[in-house]
Design goal:
By secondary structure, the protein is mainly beta. It has a domain at 13-59. Helix content is 0%, strand content 46%. It is built from no helices and two strands. The protein has strands at 13-29, 44-59.
Length: 71
Amino acid sequence: METQVLVDNGQTVVLGGILTTEELRQIAKTPLLGDIPLLGRLFRYTEESNEKVELLVFITPRLLDDGLTVR
């Protein structure tokens, strides 16, 4: 893949990103009591969570003269 982007000196451009989604389901219970049919529901619970993470890549090009040093 090849992409060309025109940007003014010192302007920022977003190249792209990565989006990840994670779904978690966790069951916690009291030992033995949580395993009893029907009554076990009183001694356990289920926790569900969703997590989304987005990573973006930002680039800010800066032109330098040959006679100048980089700070």
